[in-house]
Amino acid sequence: MGKKILLEHINVPGIETYDVYRKQGGYTAVEKALKTMTPDEVVEEVKKSGVRGRGGAGFPMGMKWSFLAKPEGVPRYLVCNADESEPGTFKDHYLMKNLPHVLIEGMIISSYALGANKSFIYVRGELMYVVRILEKAIAEAKAAGFLGKNILGTGYDLELVVQPGGGAYICGEETALLESLEGKRGNPRNKPPFPAVKGLYQSPTVVNNVESIATTSWIINNGGEAYAAIGIGRSAGTKLISASGHIKKPGVYEIELGVPVEEFIYSDEWCGGIRDGHHLKAVVAGGSSVPILPANLILKLANGDPRLMTYESLSDGGFQTGTMLGSGGFIVFDETSCIVRNTWNFARFYHHESCGQCSPCREGTGWMERVLHRIEYGHGNQHDIDLLVDVAKKIEGNTICPLGDAAAWPVASAIRHFRDEFEWHITNPSEATQPGAVFKGDMALV
Amino acid sequence: MENTQPQLFKVTIDGIEVEVEPGTTILQAARKIGGDMAPPAMCYYQPLKGSGGKCRACLVRVAAGSAKDPRPMPKLVASCITPVQDGMVVENSTNEQVLSTRKAIVEFLLINHPLDCPVCDQAGECDLQNFAFNHGMATTRYEEKRRTFDKQDIGPYIQLHMTRCILCYRCVFTADQITQKRVHGVLGRGDAAEIGTYIEKAIDNDFSGNVIDVCPVGALTDKTFRFKNRVWFTKPVDAHRDCPTCSGNVTLWYRGEDVIRVTARKNEWNEVTEFICNTCRFDKKSTSDWVIEGPTKVSRSSVISVNKARRDAIIPDFQKKLAAATYTDVHEERDTSQLGIQQLPPERFAPVLPHANDPEP
Amino acid sequence: MTETQNTVEFTPERLTKAQEIIARYPEGRQKSALLPLLHLAQEQWGWLSPEVMDYVARMLDIQAIEVYEVATFYTMFHLDPVGKHVIEYCRTGPCCLMGGEEVYDYLKQKLGIQAGETTPDQKFTLKEVECLAACGMGPVFQIREQYYMHLTKERVDEIIEELSK
């Protein structure tokens, strides 16, 4: 279970420089793709690999590529989504900072496959230091002849531009990202048209996550079938998991999809277990927007089988007993965590980050935050709980972009699985508002 | 020879079939059927390119995507921006989910909107008021604080009361599309977003007044008309003048002999048909400035139509019929033998008299 | 640091950088340079005054309102004067699980200011921000481009002392 694809050379000193990366076999995939493969063959290989979008949606990347419209005389664009902002997720940050050339190499291969001659890496503005790391790596790659005009004498031209964002979670939504890249407010676009037809500058565009693009060099070097052989079924390959919260060893881990959740949490290879003297209470497995699950449901499926770190296993049971792999932001809560406070915290996040364009999200996120704030601070009413469920339901599915769903799910799932805790806050306000007070009712801890 | 006639798409909306040209949106197809078939629209505005999709008031269910692919669409779709397909089946007011979502949209739009229609200039011609009345609930579940802003003058003619704004973006599209230089826009984000100029600036160009007409609520109002009257007391009349700047086709709003307001003409969906210039709107307020064409056609359901005609002219024997229908012989009800009442038969009721609020004949 | 409209101009190095940035985008798409230029401007002036934003608008040949709309949308841009060091601390869930709230309360108490305020000596401004994508290393704050991770009260003492010098 220890297969490393992206982080294989993470511990090699100087791996962030071109020379060291090259010595470790870097850029051989670019040579192979550009010199021996047609763009369509690259697309085919990526399709065969079964790699799915690692930003959160999990849409097969090869299929997304094959949707790209190719009208004559119109430029096509590849845009890398490095706007990583989903609470609990920090894998792209880690990858770009430590292994910038893995991304640059993937960008070259992907751009070649899509026929793009100018590609963008949109990095969240807060990571300005990473922007500089990437710019340095691009300059190195260019000096080595892997970027610019007539790359490796193949006649293929490519320019990479690193674009900083300005502080807006919503720009992780692909059409908001494109708006932002055009110098506008990050308001998601109405779809259709999809970016594959009308994206950046109204031209056909593919937007892919950092981790997805970074996998392409391994796929080209080793073949799509080899990639598909890793993992389980439709959850092919490896996935970077950002582990945070009450575990012994927070950090970014590359796992082969299919590791049991229990092993991931307790094995020393990964999270190393819950911090000393404490017990597992709940997990948010795929970034703040996916449903929170209590300890018993995250470890086991309804039929008693162990739950695995795959797209399918994590979503087993639907939202009643399951969740999603999402972006792989794995947040672990022990029994000292107050679910109400955390739900309010997440609701505040989505309220703060709503672009304000469509009414259910603009008004609903603020409404949920205010009600949750009241409950957390001892001013809740019994009817508030059902109100929250209903408001979340009315936002979900009715908005322009998925931020509405992302705001609704954490609230709805927290109430679904921890309703007692909300009720306790409402019926025992003086106790619940004491510093550090946490519900100690009947609850399955592990 | 190829058939050059554009092929028409057949669409079924709430069981009614309509044929429209490819590229037509669901909302426009529904409007073609007319009347109540059209979903409500708070942000979509046909004359403004790029408008729509934001308020979510017009969400409908697509029960069948097309004849070729009759699968239903997984989510409700914004009818104002979704093009029809041949054989598409749409559920609007026949779908429970659509209606309850619409109710929710009203509630969302109202949580930060003041419920003070009685003192708002837009009352009577407010899209949100109509939307809430037709689709909303009578009460709100919102108990939190509402956002408020101070009123702002943006130029000599227009007042912005952001508290009422529902962020439809119509005024921004208007400034973008019919003026040379946009100075106002949407600032901030989320529910803290606001329409504004950022630094105090007047919106001064020949067509700035049109933002008042496109505003669906009372956020942008005509300072020359504010608090002068209620629209249902005024009488709209179509008129035109030779204007060097715009078409000069307007609606004059009379109170008695005075023109108290000039607006662009609107169609039955409350959309401006031709944008007008500020000179026509703000400076030409005497009847002598205009060539009068005749009364503006106003929907019977609009409060503006109230009191616009003598009742006896519309329904000559309404009162008589009403009296006949509700006539009860008092003797059936109680013993009046001791009272000496002489009851008039219904046909003896006096003819309809003009009402105090009726306009002059 | 406010300057009048006439004197608002990038330093020669930044002007060159700005021109390089503008040249990255296809013909007619220079508006794409807006966010990078606003960052560059904030680097020079510390915050974005209307005069600075107007300058950027002229440089990109767009309306001033287009710059205001964008600058007010993104939270990284300071629209009011700030202190020498702007401490942007992450208030989102994962950092709070790691004791963020206590550390930030300590920070506020130490500086004697609340989020959104600047110390009277103009040295520090506190700003609450959402997730900085460093959840495994929380609590986290950022000062300019530098991330400060695994924060504790002791670390806060050290950092503030270092920056106060």
From TrEMBL, chain A:
Stored PROSITE patterns: COMPLEX1_51K_2
Keyword Membrane attached: no
Pfam families documented for this protein: Complex1_51K, NADH_4Fe-4S
NADH-ubiquinone oxidoreductase 51kDa subunit iron-sulphur binding domain boundaries: 340-385
Enzymatic reactions: a quinone + NADH + 5 H(+)(in) = a quinol + NAD(+) + 4 H(+)(out)
PANTHER family per UniProt: NADH-QUINONE OXIDOREDUCTASE SUBUNIT F
UniProt function note: NDH-1 shuttles electrons from NADH, via FMN and iron-sulfur (Fe-S) centers, to quinones in the respiratory chain.
This protein's name: NADH-quinone oxidoreductase subunit F
UniProtKB/TrEMBL annotation, chain B:
Location of the protein in the cell: Membrane
Molecular-function GO terms, alphabetical: 2 iron, 2 sulfur cluster binding; 4 iron, 4 sulfur cluster binding; metal ion binding; oxidoreductase activity
Domain 4Fe-4S His(Cys)3-ligated-type: 97-136
Obligatory cofactor(s): [4Fe-4S] cluster; [2Fe-2S] cluster
Pfam families xref list: Fer2_4, Fer4_Nqo3, NADH-G_4Fe-4S_3
Chief location of this protein within or outside the cell: membrane
Ranges for region Disordered: 333-361
Keywords: 2Fe-2S, 4Fe-4S, Iron, Iron-sulfur, Membrane, Metal-binding, NAD, Translocase
Annotated 2Fe-2S ferredoxin-type domain residues: 9-96
Family according to the record: Belongs to the complex I 75 kDa subunit family.
Protein name: NADH-quinone oxidoreductase subunit G
Automatic annotation (TrEMBL), chain C:
Cofactor info, note text: Binds 1 [2Fe-2S] cluster.
Coiled coil: none
Cited Pfam families: 2Fe-2S_thioredx
GO molecular function: 2 iron, 2 sulfur cluster binding; metal ion binding; NADH dehydrogenase activity
Phosphoprotein as UniProt keyword: no
Family the entry assigns: Belongs to the complex I 24 kDa subunit family.
Protein's recorded name: NADH-quinone oxidoreductase subunit E
Origin species: Larkinella arboricola
